[in-house]
Structures are given as structure tokens and as C-alpha cells.
Amino acid sequence: MNRTRLVLFVVSILDYCVWIYGVHPDVKLNFIERAKRHGYPFEVHQAITDDGYLIDLLRFPRGISKSENEPKNKSVLLIMHGNGGSPHNFIAMGRKKAPAYYFADRNFDVWLICGRGVHCVNNRKHQKYDWNRDPEYWNFSFHECGIYDIAASIDYVLNATKQQKLFYIGHSSAVNSIFALLSERPEYNNKLKAIANYAGSPIITEMDYPSIELVCELSNLFKGALKILDFHEVFPRTIRDTINPILRLFCIDRKFKFTCKTLVMSFSSHLSYNIDEDLYEVILGDAPPRFASKALCHLMDNVKNGYFRFYDHGPKMNKKIYGHTLPRAYNISACVVPTAFFSGATDSIVLRKEMWKTQEYLNNTVLDYEIGPSFMHVDFLFARNATFKLYEPTVKLFNDINNGKIPPRIIRKRSNLN
Ligand SMILES: *[C@@H]1O[C@H](CO)[C@@H](O)[C@H](O)[C@H]1NC(C)=O
Ligand SMILES: *[C@@H]1O[C@H](CO)[C@@H](O)[C@H](O)[C@H]1NC(C)=O
Ligand SMILES: *[C@@H]1O[C@H](CO)[C@@H](O)[C@H](O)[C@H]1NC(C)=O
Ligand SMILES: *[C@@H]1O[C@H](CO)[C@@H](O)[C@H](O)[C@H]1NC(C)=O
Ligand SMILES: *[C@@H]1O[C@H](CO)[C@@H](O)[C@H](O)[C@H]1NC(C)=O
Ligand SMILES: *[C@@H]1O[C@H](CO)[C@@H](O)[C@H](O)[C@H]1NC(C)=O
């Protein structure tokens, strides 16, 4: 038996053990199975983007205890995950607690975008390219996720629901995506009632995360390495298929629980105390994520360049493409819809002061809300108390806007709930 086969053999045994010992009932389930188990009615739709990607839209039209003869013109809420995230994030906490369900239970018609590079339901991901084979498929960042995926989703959902406008929530780099869309296609301002930014800011100049900051400074080196290795994804498929069962095994055996937590927390620099132990299995069941290398590089460029800019091809190519050694800047001020920012007091990736820098360019910030005393980047999706710390104030804001009670501009609020 050669070495590769041995590795595969061991991996499949691990995988089998995970299957036997998996404690959380959601671990082995796909999106449809999970949503069914949670008991919410839902629908699968598909939109086609201008550049040929096929995007799943997962709709939760009503809450768990609601009848079919509810008002037909409910407020529509579109939710987008960040790079490395997926719609699974928004149902992971399960019945009544996960954000998709929380909003559906409160009379929102909830649509989750399954952006390019993420698997949800349909396997065909592009009209021309095969996502497992063609590097062209992975040629994107938050830019394309915004100007194509979100744009196509907004148009599809407004048409399907016969509404004029919708609410938008973006987590992490989905905030960058919506700002890219509004900068490049400002007519989309007219299709939005309001946007809520969860743990995201188009301007990110520093982080409380020295190792990632260093990588950002050295991003050209990093890009070079990815190019030499020919990695169009940060975790190519063979690596993913090997790591995934190991990760899952770690998270089931109590001895390894701490390692497992640390892996989840590699998305922040501190441990979260807000996530239930058994949820880690579900979170890591899908890890490591499929993540376009270019998407990671574009985010790093922005940290290095200290402003919200187009993709950085290096000074020479930039001069050719953008007419300047620095990449072209997005127009942040083009976002004129009511905008709310939700920050975590201990989020080490997107700091609150970065959101303030963004707000200096906006004329319509309606809420700046800090969640504390301890709330981190992933807590926006998975924290035990996210329901009343985060989703409840969001619902209140949206209902106020629906009722014409737009709050006076920039209310800075701090929640010190535990
Ligand atoms: C739905 O329609 C009713 C009656 O036309 C109206 O009062 C209500 O505000 C509408 N709701 C939304 C969310 O548009
Ligand atoms: C990636 O897309 C850009 C346009 O967005 C194009 O100019 C470039 O040639 C593409 N690169 C690859 C490797 O497909
Ligand atoms: C709009 O929705 C209707 C069904 O409600 C559908 O027949 C039509 O193709 C949709 N149009 C677009 C442009 O998606
Ligand atoms: C940016 O958008 C704002 C608001 O629409 C507009 O007034 C301004 O002229 C734009 N700036 C640039 C450089 O396009
Ligand atoms: C923000 O600026 C835009 C474009 O300059 C304008 O149309 C809009 O009314 C302004 N919004 C507020 C709340 O001042
Ligand atoms: C979560 O909220 C409950 C109240 O519903 C509170 O008793 C509990 O201490 C909170 N837990 C954390 C970890 O914040």
C-alpha cells in the first residue's frame, strides 16, 4: 500500500468513527436535511449572475408556527455570508435561535444567498466552468460577490416577491460586497430599505490580530506563493478532504475539545465563551471552507493599502489597469440607504473604530451598536445569546424603518447585557 492510499485509508476510518460517535444530529446532514429537521418551511431558488454563476437562494418564507394565510406582502430580508462562510452559518444554531429562523419567526420573508464558491443544494455552479476543475471559476473576491451575486439575488427576490425594496444583512466580507455593489451600481440604492452590517467594514486599516496583520503586510509574498503552488483555493480539494474528517474527530473526542475550539477561533484571536460546546461539531462539520485565494488576497490588500480599493495587481499592472500605482478606490459615499453597524466589543478582525472611519464617508448611518462585554467575529452567527443581543435590536430597527420611524442619525449604543 503506498503512502497516499494509507492516508486515505486512515482518513476513511476516522470519517467512519465520526459518523458513529457524532453527537450533534446536524453533523452529517446537508442543508436541506438540516432545515427539514429544524421544521421550518423552505424553498430553493436559483438565480443566474451576469457573469454566468448559478447562485442558490434559500428561502424561509414564514416562521415555524405560522400558517400559510399570512399577509403576502411581508418585509423581505436578504442575508449574505462572508468569504469562507456559508448559509449553513445562519441555521447552525437551530430552531428559534439561528438568525434565519429568528427573523422568519418575526414575520420576515428570509432569503439566504449561497454565494459563488459555496455548496448548498445545486451542484452545477457555473454555466461554463466546473468548480472542481477550472481555475477560472475561482477568479473572484468580495467584489464579484457584490456586483454580481448580490445584484442578481436582489433582482430575483424583488421579482419573486413583487416588492419594491428589501432589507439586507451582511456578515463580515459581505459588508465589503454590498459597499462594492453600491459604489459600482448605485442604482441598487433604490432597491434597499436599509442595510445592517454585522462585524464588517469596507475600511479596515488594522486588526487586533498580529499574525494576520503580518500576512497582510506580506500579501505580495503570499500571492506569489499561491501562484507557484497553483492554489486557486486557499484549501484545495485534496487538502480539504483530508483535513475535514480529522477536524470533525477532534471536535467529538473530549480530549481534543480544546484544540477544536482553537481551530474555530482561528478566525479571531481570543476564545469565545459564548458558543455552546456541542455547536463546534456542527461548525467544523463543514470546515475547512472553500475559499478563493483571490478573495483572501483582496481583503488583505485593503488592510495593507489602508482604504477600500479594487484588487491590487502590483504597482506596474495597476498603472496599466487603473492608471495609478494604487488600485482604484471604491466610492463609499455612494451608499445612501439607511445603514446600521453592529460591532462586537471583542471582535479582533473588524474593530469598531474601523466602522467609525467608514461612517465618516456616509450621510445616512442610522445606528452604531456595540455588543459587549464579550462578543467576537463568529459570535454574530453562533453565540448563545445572539438572539437578544443582536437579532432583537436588528428586528426593532427594521420595524421602526417600516413604520416610518427612522431613528435620528448616528445613535451610538452600547449593550452591556451578559
Ligand atoms: C402590506 O400591506 C398592508 C396593506 O396594504 C400595509 O398596511 C402594510 O404596511 C404592508 N406591509 C409591508 C411590509 O409592506
Ligand atoms: C480574472 O477576471 C478578470 C476580470 O475580472 C480578468 O481580467 C482576468 O483575466 C481573469 N483571470 C483569470 C486567470 O481568469
Ligand atoms: C419574475 O417572476 C415571474 C414569476 O413570478 C417569472 O415568470 C419571471 O420569469 C420572472 N422574471 C425574471 C426576470 O426573473
Ligand atoms: C460618490 O457618490 C456620491 C453619492 O452618490 C456622489 O455624490 C459622488 O459624486 C460620488 N463620487 C465619485 C467620485 O464618484
Ligand atoms: C445622502 O446623499 C445623497 C446623495 O448626495 C442624497 O440623495 C440623500 O438624500 C442624502 N441622505 C440624507 C439622509 O441626507
Ligand atoms: C444569556 O442570556 C441569559 C438570559 O436570557 C442570561 O441568564 C445568561 O447569563 C446569558 N449568558 C451569557 C453567556 O451571556
From TrEMBL:
<keyword id="KW-0378">Hydrolase</keyword>
<dbReference type="InterPro" id="IPR006693">
    <property type="entry name" value="AB_hydrolase_lipase"/>
</dbReference>
<comment type="similarity">
    <text>Belongs to the AB hydrolase superfamily. Lipase family.</text>
</comment>
<keyword id="KW-0443">Lipid metabolism</keyword>
<keyword id="KW-0325">Glycoprotein</keyword>
<dbReference type="InterPro" id="IPR025483">
    <property type="entry name" value="Lipase_euk"/>
</dbReference>
<keyword id="KW-0732">Signal</keyword>
<dbReference type="GO" id="GO:0016042">
    <property type="term" value="P:lipid catabolic process"/>
</dbReference>
<feature type="active site" description="Nucleophile">
    <location>
        <position position="172"/>
    </location>
</feature>
<keyword id="KW-0442">Lipid degradation</keyword>
<dbReference type="InterPro" id="IPR029058">
    <property type="entry name" value="AB_hydrolase_fold"/>
</dbReference>
<protein>
    <recommendedName>
        <fullName>Lipase</fullName>
    </recommendedName>
</protein>
<feature type="domain" description="Partial AB-hydrolase lipase">
    <location>
        <begin position="33"/>
        <end position="93"/>
    </location>
</feature>
<feature type="active site" description="Charge relay system">
    <location>
        <position position="377"/>
    </location>
</feature>
<dbReference type="Pfam" id="PF04083">
    <property type="entry name" value="Abhydro_lipase"/>
</dbReference>
<feature type="active site" description="Charge relay system">
    <location>
        <position position="347"/>
    </location>
</feature>
<dbReference type="GO" id="GO:0016788">
    <property type="term" value="F:hydrolase activity, acting on ester bonds"/>
</dbReference>
